[in-house]
Description:
The chain is mostly helical. Helix content is about 70%, strand content about 0%. Among the domains are: about 170 residues, Tetratricopeptide repeat domain (Serine Threonine Protein Phosphatase 5, Tetratricopeptide repeat, Alpha Horseshoe); about 70 residues. The chain has a two-stranded antiparallel ribbon with strand order 1-2. Strand 1 and strand 2 form a beta hairpin. Helix 3 runs parallel beside helix 5, helix 24 runs parallel beside helix 26 and helix 30 runs antiparallel to helix 33.
Amino acid sequence: xxxxxxxxxxxxxxxxxxxxxxxxYKKGLKAADAILKKFxxxxxxxxxxxxxxxxxxxxxxxxxxxxxxxxxxxxxxVCWHVYGLLHRSDREYREAIKCYRNALRIDPDNIEILxxxxxxxxxxxxxxxxxxxxxxxxxxxxxHRMNWIGFAISQHLNxxxxxxxxxxxxxxxxxxxxxxxxxxxxxxxxxxxxxxxLLEECGLLEKALEELHxxxxxxxxxxxxxxxxxxxxxxxxxxxxxxxxYRVLLSMxxxxxxxxxxxxxxxxxxxxxxxxSSEEIDHLDALYKSxxxxxxxxxxxxxxPLDFLxxxxxxxxxxxxxxxxxxxxxxxxxxxxxxxxxxxGKADILEKLLLDxxxxxxxxxxYPGRSEKEPPSTLMWTLxxxxxxxxxxxxxxxxxxxxxxxxxxxxxxxxxxxxxxxxLKHAGDFGAAASLADEARCMDLADRYVNSQCVKRMLQxxxxxxxxxxxxxxxxxxxxxxxxxxxxxxxxxxxxxxxYFRQGDLGRALKKFLAVEKHYADITEDQFDFHSYxxxxxxxxxxxxxxxFQDRLHAHPYFRKAAAGATRCYLxxxxxxxxxxxxxxxxxxxxPAAQKKKLRQKQRKAxxxxxxxxxxxxxxxxxxGVSKSGKRQIKPVDPDPHGLKLLQTEDPLMEAGKYLKxxxxxxxxxxxxxxxxxxxxxxxxxxxxxxxxxxxxQQLDAGxxxxxxxxxxxxxxxxxxxxxxxxxxxxILGVMEAERPSFSQxxxxxxxxxxxxxxxxxxxxxxxxxVVAEMIYCLEPNKKGEAIRLIEESPNNLVSSNGSFGPVRxxxxxxxxxxxxxxxxxFEDHDASSRWKVRCAEYFPYSTYFxxxxxSSLATSKDFKQALAKNGSIEFLPSNGKVQNVDALKNLAI
Length: 894
């Protein structure tokens, strides 16, 4: 570097490099300017100056200088390397790889460039090139441990684990007999465990176990050693040895559920689907009783039997498990037992058990059959559990009665208010749920979890400004938006995005969904630093696990929600595009002069207000100081806080397609992915791609109402297409004719007949009947009345709730809301929509959507507020009119 310069300037060039590495950017710039005074066209100095400016956030100047330096010295590997570093800083990894390859053509043995190239190849999963680069590094510097390990990792990632084993064995052959030294024992032990995992992956189980035993004294992590050993023993079917080792592990940690599962495998009492014969249940019961005597303090050994025991044995085990936790007052008891509600009959047993507890404590002060008295709090926690139990079963009246009784018993327990808020949310009263959650928050202002729950309830009630003010209480410097985004608070962004979408504010909804998508891009970027770190620290097993997690990162539920939300926004934007400025001017011209003048005044005031806010934010942003490195501490200002620019996209379907591709690649097992694909491709008029999505829907769940809707709509649209003589249209029609018999529902039937058969198969389901009615109206619009009657005659089957408190309605609130919207939007029948609303208001008395008789929406009435305030039984905050005493409101409303 700098070889073409005189000695004095060559030393200054070395100073530039050193200053860059130590982040003394001003010092480096000074040295660069000193060289450029005498040699203004020196390419390497220009490039290094540009790289230094890039670190000071002066990117345009940096790119100009680096390109200029490269132009002046096209054969300098330094200039190409610096250009690659510049691209790497902007995450343009493909371009950076090209630059590094050009640098290596000039200096093929430059270890630093090869190392940087290998990191980028690992990041971009260019595995063949990664193997080649790591092999070259090993050839150039075979005495460096990282080069051996890096070459082995590259072969493993390139699906050549056997070669990776050979490399590790060759590396071990270069070591001394008494290796490792004390300072490197942990790193060497990790390498040996990694080698064992490779042998296991290759199916060489005996060799892996032999290697593990042979190197036991060199492995420091004894727990990982035992877990690897027992895994190999079970796979080798040496179950007796595995059982003994699992019992050793349980003595170390008797609350590890995976150890119990492994022990069950060793004694041949493990079932993938959770179903056991009566003989197996007896053996399991005996096993866990013996383990329970050994580990009396373990919670897991008492909880696991509840999953497989039945009837009387289950009741006895549940009785013994629940009583101590109720006495102790464990709020998470219901969360712990909630998976049991998916087992037939167990929910009824738990209900009877808890009701017996409640009655006995109220009458005798203790549990049934016991003489000792329970503390007063036991009754409160029993009622607390029962409230959640009846909420789970959809009996909201009883759930609210239980939680109200518990609140009267002990009004200072925050969990009671949180649970009542959740019950009201499930019952459909989102406003009251938000008010109760806020009341719980005010009882402990230092509890971040309760604050987050309150924010969620507010967003579910579409109170976004209030939610933002509440969330800001736990962010740095009171800067809510930037800090929540910097903290990657995705649950908040998803919930607020859904709220904005419900309210029709597509710009802000898109803003939130795309913010979540950016977080995943940042997470992908964050792995870059670990490519060198993990090789240096020898955390090889964790490194491989992290890379595999990154490969399936976009299958994470939060990303799926964000991508699906963004796609829905773009679909809605396509269906109802925002008005252009020309159209707005045309509508403005039609208005009377007075209204036109008022509207223009409002627009000018809004523009002035927005300009003033932007200036204030800009001033706040420039207040930041300057760091030692010369970087200015500037707070980022969002140029598009309302997402208006996102709404100005010319092709919403193209934007939707970007996120749809990610869903199809990483979440192809989800019904929603193919539903969105169908909707997008139908709008694009890409019939064959829509057919592909339809086939996926039928394969995943042919009985789903949405799958049936797509099936009928598709073939109805294909049949309604105008005849065309083009070869392309003929080819598509030929494909349709060939593919139609593959759908068993349509085999030998018309679309109306297939619709009728689907109704016969699912006539007791509300959503299935609603979809069938939609398709009747779609196929034959003159049968609108028949279609509406089909919905209105839907039976609401009653499900017994143990006979204690009467029947439970089968209909779900969200399904009834969807049907109501269908009657109003698709059928455009106001009378039918009103009848349905009245009917559902009886079934869901707490629902604000249907204005049930117990809902809190009565408080929105001005006269009602005044009457309550005059009565003195309720208070409102003057800023937002929030209810402070929800119970008083409900009593008066009733």
